[in-house]
Amino acid sequence: MTIKMIVVDMDGTFLNEQNTYDQARFMALYARLQKARIRFVVASGSQYQRLQNQFAAVKDELDFISQNGALVHHGHELLQVSALNDDDLQQTLQLIQQDFPTNMIVQRTISGVRKTYIERQVPAATLTTIQRYYHALEPVDDFFHLSATKIDDQITKIGLTFAPQVNFPAAVQHLRAMLPPTLMSQNSGFNTELIGNTGIDKVTGISELQARYNIAADEIMTFGDNENDLAMLQMTPYGFAMKNAAAAFRQQAPQITIADNDHAGVLATIESLL
C-alpha cells in the first residue's frame, strides 16, 4: 500500500462531538506524514474560513476542499470555484420561499467565496448553531433576492436545515425534484441539505488535487460518515467509513475505522496503518 494523500471529512469524522480534536496528537502525526511526503487534505461541506481556523498552525500548508467541493484551496491560494448561475440562484430561492414555510426550516444560508450570508433577523440560538459551521458571516436584509452582483461575491451553495419535526426524507425528495437540472442537493448531516452545481462534490475537489500533485486514486486514503462523503470513500480501496456512521452507510464503504469520532478514529486508523 502506497499512500500519497489522506482526505478527511470534519463533522462526525475528524471532529469529536465537542467540535474539537486532539491537536497535539494530530501535529505529531502530521510531522510523520510530512516526512513520508503524504499530503493531508480537509474536505467538508462547511466554510473554508472555518476549516482554516481549525488548522491554524498549518493552514498555509494544507489543501482544503470546502462547501462539498465547490471551493478548492491550497493554503490561501484559491484553485477552483464552482459558482452558481444567477438565474439558477434566483429560481431556487423563489422555490424555497414558496414551498418550504418558515416552520419547516430552522436555518438558511447562502455561501460564497468570501462569506456566508444569512437573514438579518435570526434567533440567537440559530445564530449560535450557524457560527459553529461558518466563521465569516454577513447578515443581509433581502435574503431571497440575493445575487452575486449585490454582494460582490461568487455564490457557490445554498444551505437548508430542516426542523426536527419535518419528515426529512420526504422534504429532501421534494427539494431535489424541484431543483433545475443544473443544480443538485447533497445531505451534509444534521438535517441539512447543501445545494450546488450538478456534478460538483468532494470527488471533483479531490480530482483537482490529484492533477496538481500527480496522485492516483489508489494512492489516496479517505474518511467520512455521511452521504456527501460516500463517493470519495468509494473512489479508492482505502476509503474508511467512521465507526460511528449509520450501519447502512458503513456497509457501502470499503473499510471501517478502528474507533469512532469521539475516540479519534481517524488519527487512530492512520497511526495503525503508517
Automatic annotation (TrEMBL):
InterPro entries: HAD-like_sf, HAD-SF_hydro_IIB, HAD_sf. GO terms for cellular component: cytosol. Signal peptide: none annotated. GO terms for molecular function: magnesium ion binding; phosphatase activity. It comes from the Bacteria. This is Uncharacterized protein.
